[in-house]
Design brief:
Elements lengths: L2 E4 L7 E5 L4 H13 L3 E4 L5 H9 L4 E5 L4 H12 L5 E5 L10 H9 L3 E4 L8 E4 L7 E5 L4 H10 L7 E6 L5 H13 L4 E4 L2 E4 L8 E4 L4 H12 L6 E5 L12 H4 L5 E5 L3 E6 L7 E5 L7 H11 L2 E5 L11 H10 L5 E3 L4 E3 L9 E3 L5 H7 L8 E3 L12 H7 L3 E4 L1
Parallel strand pairs: 2-13, 3-12, 4-5, 8-9, 16-17, 20-21
Antiparallel strand pairs: 1-21, 1-22, 5-7, 6-7, 9-11, 10-11, 13-15, 14-15, 17-19, 18-19
Helix pairs in contact: 1-2, 1-3, 1-6, 2-3, 3-5, 4-5, 5-6, 7-9, 9-11
Bound molecules: shikimate-3-phosphate and phosphoenolpyruvate (PEP).
GO molecular function, one term: 3-phosphoshikimate 1-carboxyvinyltransferase activity
Protein name: 3-phosphoshikimate 1-carboxyvinyltransferase
Catalytic activity: 3-phosphoshikimate + phosphoenolpyruvate = 5-O-(1-carboxyvinyl)-3-phosphoshikimate + phosphate
């Protein structure tokens, strides 16, 4: 699907949008529910990633294809490895077969798991023969993806002696690890995270518990970007959100103050308001705790004619696409000057944006959604716009609700 996007006729938007549950919280909650069936879940994500996780958890034998879903790949690897009697080949899209998983496989093998690489050493697909894992202490690198750590923590309470992890190197994407621990706590599992060690106690049964998934803050980022590019006075209400979020991307409410915005927290809602046009020329952020909003912020800066220096982006090259390279290519189509290195991106302020640029999306939902808001500033085309379904299938419909022109070509 190729979409032509154009600016809303009324740039002073006043609308309300309901966003579905966080895909990160959803996929964790689903795994916990598979281990402890008396858990109930509310406000599940309607994303492709949530669906493949749900379907994957139902399989006992045969092939499980999780397509592009990193969390499903990593969480299900740990799940199947720990389930005696299950035997699967866990595979994914061609990009998933390029996303590394060795750190997790080696940690699980050290705990006693039976996992083999079907094609290339260190990458999916994996043949997993489920076993009762007997070991309870393992050490693993923490600087590549926090998802390996969350995967181990999620199965930890179901292991006979629980689990103790020693994290080696600088820990990346820390809020996602804390989210996992917070969900364990909500179901009554005891866990401690201090320095580079995490210990999770075993638990054979949990009380009846309902996990209420907060809506997705990474999805909210695109509305922050839209409001930032609107007239002063614009307000968009999003639900269902809370001030004490488990999601690190809720840092958006602070970051977007730099773009002349304010976030008001109500009961279950946030209202994003544009309150000032007085903006700095350049902003700097370390996004090692919130890597998924890097694309949104870079495009907001482009749209507002601001520069930015974004650091802590060392995980971006192994996500749905190499996001650093993809950002550089696509931002440059607007005549922007962009420099990247292994962990940072620098965008120079750009005043005149090229017209009718066609954005390539590289099978990456966030490339499509990050550039969508730029239609506030210039008409543009988004190629393969259907990629948004990975995390936010209703994205284009919601943009239409705000008055954007969204035309299939
Ligand atoms: O645990 C999670 O739910 C996630 C962790 C992050 O990955 P990394 O830890 O690989 O940075 C993030 O980018 C991803 O979208 C979701
Ligand atoms: C990196 C992402 O997802 P995953 O790693 O779960 O595929 C994302 O949603 O931005």
């Amino acid at each position: 699907m190729r979409l032509q996007l154009s600016v809303p006729s009324n740039k002073n938007i006043q609308k309300a949008i309901q966003i579905t549950g966080s895909k990160s919280e959803t996929n964790r909650s689903l795994l916990l529910q598979a281990l402890f069936p008396n858990i109930k879940i509310e406000n599940l994500s309607n994303s492709d990633d949530g669906e493949v996780m749900q379907e994957g958890l139902l399989v006992s034998n045969g092939e499980v294809d999780i397509h592009h879903a990193g969390t499903a790949m990593r969480f299900l690897t740990a799940y199947f490895a720990s389930q005696a009697g299950k035997e699967v080949v866990l595979t994914g899209s061609s990009r998933m077969q390029e996303r590394p998983i060795k750190v997790l496989v080696e940690a699980l093998r050290a705990l006693g798991a039976d996992i083999e690489y079907v094609k290339n050493e260190g990458y999916p697909p994996l043949k997993i023969i489920g076993k009762k894992l007997e070991q309870s202490l393992v050490s693993l690198p923490a600087n590549i993806s926090s998802q390996y750590i969350s995967a181990l923590l999620l199965i930890a309470p179901s292991l006979k002696n629980g689990l103790e992890l020693e994290l080696v190197g600088k820990i990346t994407s820390v809020p996602y690890i804390k989210m996992t621990l917070a969900l364990l706590e909500q179901i009554g599992v005891q866990a401690h995270f201090e320095g580079n060690r995490i210990k999770v106690e075993p638990k054979s049964m949990v009380e009846d518990t309902t996990l209420v998934v907060e809506s997705d803050w990474s999805s909210a980022s695109y509305f922050y970007s839209i409001v930032a590019m609107c007239e002063v006075g614009t307000k968009i209400q999003l639900s269902s959100y809370k001030q004490n979020s488990l999601q690190g991307d809720s840092v958006l409410s602070k970051i977007y103050q730099d773009f002349g915005m304010e976030t008001q927290f109500g009961e279950n809602t946030i209202i994003l308001s544009k309150i000032s046009d007085n903006l700095p020329n350049k902003v700097n952020y370390d996004l090692s705790n919130a890597p998924d909003i890097a694309q949104t912020i870079a495009v907001t800066c482009l749209g507002l004619g601001m520069g930015c220096h974004l650091t802590g982006l060392h995980t971006l090259p192994i996500k749905e696409t190499d996001r650093l390279a993809a950002l550089q290519t696509e931002l440059s189509k607007f005549d922007a000057k962009v420099d990247i290195d292994a962990e940072s991106l620098t965008l120079q302020p750009t005043s005149n944006l090229n017209l009718d640029v066609a954005i390539d999306t590289y099978n990456d939902h966030r490339m499509a959604m990050a550039f969508g808001p730029l239609a506030m500033r210039t008409d543009l085309i988004v190629n393969d716009a259907g990629v948004v379904s990975k995390s936010y299938p209703d994205f284009w419909k919601d943009l239409k609700t705000l008055g954007f022109g969204v035309q299939e070509m």
